[in-house]
Design goal:
Layout lengths: L3 E3 L6 H12 L16 E7 L4 E3 L3 E3 L1 E6 L4 E3 L5 E4 L5 E4 L2 E4 L3 E9 L2 E10 L2 E5 L9 E3 L5 E5 L7 E6 L4 E4 L9 E4 L5 E4 L2 E2 L2 E2 L3 E5 L4 E3 L8 E2 L2 E4 L5 E4 L2 E2 L8 E5 L4 E5 L10 E4 L5 E4 L15 E5 L4 E5 L10 E4 L5 E4 L9 E8 L4 E12 L3 E4 L5 E4 L16 E5 L4 E5 L10 E4 L5 E6 L4 E7 L1
Parallel strand pairs: 3-11
Antiparallel strand pairs: 1-2, 2-5, 4-9, 5-6, 7-10, 8-9, 10-11, 12-43, 13-14, 14-15, 15-16, 17-18, 18-21, 19-20, 21-22, 23-26, 24-25, 25-27, 27-28, 29-30, 30-31, 31-32, 33-34, 34-35, 35-36, 37-38, 38-39, 39-40, 41-42, 42-43
Pfam family, one: Kelch_KLHDC2_KLHL20_DRC7
Protein name: Bulb-type lectin domain-containing protein
InterPro entries: Big_2 (IPR003343), Bulb-type_lectin_dom (IPR001480), Gal_Oxase/kelch_b-propeller (IPR011043), Gal_Oxidase_central_sf (IPR037293), Kelch_1 (IPR006652)
Length: 459
């Protein structure tokens, strides 16, 4: 990632007068320390770069001052930010909000130095974001607005890192020696990681990451060793873990529930069907819909159309209506109206599906949600702020080494129960991770030729 840096003369003249006045009051600004007046501000750099945002989306930029003594200082809050194209974008203390499609020019000035940079206000397009440093694990949006990833593939076992949207950078976090894990954000703001594989096979691992301390703690071990399970935060703050493939020794099949307050796992009655590569969706009524998947004892040929409901209060399962199509490795997204959108996946023959279905909890019925343009499995789905659903990437045949995945993306509109094409990603992503950032953009990451690369979707 490169910063935009220049030392151009200030425009317009009225801003020059302001900058001279600021210079008379001291060069570094807040945090400069003793001797600040002996160094002069030589240039200003802006990050992140390249600069993009969307209509109605606010993106924070940072201004860094570079001084004659080699020091730097954050000038974001003390510099003067001016939009030279206010009809396209507005700015306030580095926070740029798109108003209309086009290119805006933002001028940043402080103590006699200035920089202007162009920001593109776009829609339905992708732009590159910083590459991950290590590997891709489950993506979790933290309360701070940063994104946490831990675990991932077998290329770099146990890596963890943090993405800062304001700086567009990834930084290493305390590592986790597990791959193939699942994660849930706890009500405390910590991240619970469960299941997966270590160097010794499928594990009953559970660990809690504290973003404030950048450290892991080891809570109680799960009752089962499992891989390919789901992890769902319940309204009472406990976490439901269901299904997956079990490791040795042979175990009686059951689900389980973690209580952060007592740091303990308790058994949950087993689902009616054994499942892996299924979905578990927290409904508006506090219950959990589990749908699809395959029987691990049979393999992917055992894909199922069955679904069931977990009641956390009664600690019981009840059958839900079957989907129209048996599927595994699909996605399930809770919509704004309380229905659940299930998309794609693989059938019992391992072929990708283009069909989508809607589950209505109030009537316990499934209905058609149309068809994707491109059949896909192991894709990602994100509920957008406007209530639509973005589907991106995925695979056609994961067992084929030549299958690098799909670059296409599609959008589902619940209001008219139809699909439309979204802008294609800059590269194919076979098993992407995606998360909605606090400013309404979507961060998507997946493997390229060497390391996981990422990009941002602007609605």
């Amino acid at each position: 990632m490169s910063a935009i840096t220049t030392n151009r003369s200030l425009r317009p003249i009225i801003l020059l007068a302001t900058a001279i006045l600021m210079n008379a009051c001291g060069g570094h600004g807040a945090g400069a320390g003793a001797g600040a007046n002996s160094a002069t501000l030589q240039s200003i750099s802006i990050t992140p770069s390249p600069a993009n945002t969307g209509v109605g989306i606010t993106r924070q930029f940072t201004a860094t001052g570079h001084f004659s003594d080699g020091s730097t200082a954050d000038l974001t809050t003390t510099a003067t930010w001016t939009s030279l194209t206010p009809s396209i974008a507005a700015v306030n203390a580095g926070a740029v909000t798109g108003s209309a499609l086009g290119t805006a020019t933002i001028l940043v000035s402080s103590a006699g130095a200035a920089v202007d940079f162009a920001i593109n206000v776009t829609a339905n397009v992708w732009s590159p974001a910083a590459n991950m440093r290590l590997t891709l694990g489950p993506l979790t949006l933290l309360p701070s607005g940063k994104v946490f990833s831990a675990g991932g593939s077998n290329v770099h076992s146990g890596d963890a890192e943090l993405y800062d949207p304001n700086q567009d950078i990834w930084s290493e976090a305390s590592p986790l020696a597990i791959i193939g894990n699942t994660a849930a954000l706890l009500q405390s703001g910590k991240v619970l990681s469960v299941g997966g594989q270590s160097f010794y096979g499928i594990t009953g691992h559970s660990a809690t990451y504290d973003p404030a301390l950048n450290s892991w703690s080891a809570p109680a071990t799960m009752l089962q060793t499992r891989y390919g399970n789901t992890t769902t935060l319940l309204p009472d703050g406990t976490v439901l873990v269901t299904g997956g493939m079990f490791g040795p020794p042979t175990q009686a099949r059951e689900e389980e529930r973690y209580s952060p307050s007592s740091d303990s796992w308790s058994a949950v009655p087993a689902m009616a069907s054994s499942r892996a590569a299924h979905t578990a969706t927290l409904l508006a009524n506090g219950k959990v819909l589990v749908a699809g998947g395959y029987d691990p004892s049979v393999g992917t040929a055992g894909s199922t159309s069955s679904a069931e409901i977990y009641d956390p209060t009664a600690n019981t399962w009840s059958p839900a209506a079957n989907m129209a199509v048996a599927r595994d490795r699909h996605t399930a997204t809770l919509l704004s109206d309380g229905k659940v959108l299930v998309v794609g996946g693989a059938n019992a023959s391992g072929q990708p599906l283009s069909s989508a279905e809607l589950y209505d909890p109030s009537t316990n019925t499934w209905s058609s949600a149309g068809n994707l343009t491109a059949a896909r499995m192991q894709h990602a789905a994100v509920l957008l702020p406007n209530g639509k659903v973005l589907i991106l990437g995925g695979s056609v045949n994961p067992s084929d080494p030549a299958d690098v995945g799909l670059a296409t993306a599609e959008i589902y509109d619940p209001a008219i129960n139809s699909w439309s094409a979204a802008g294609s990603m800059t590269m194919p992503r076979a098993q992407p991770g995606a998360v909605l950032l606090k400013n309404g953009t979507v961060l998507a990451c997946g493997w390229s030729s060497t390391l996981p690369s990422c990009e941002l979707y602007w609605q």
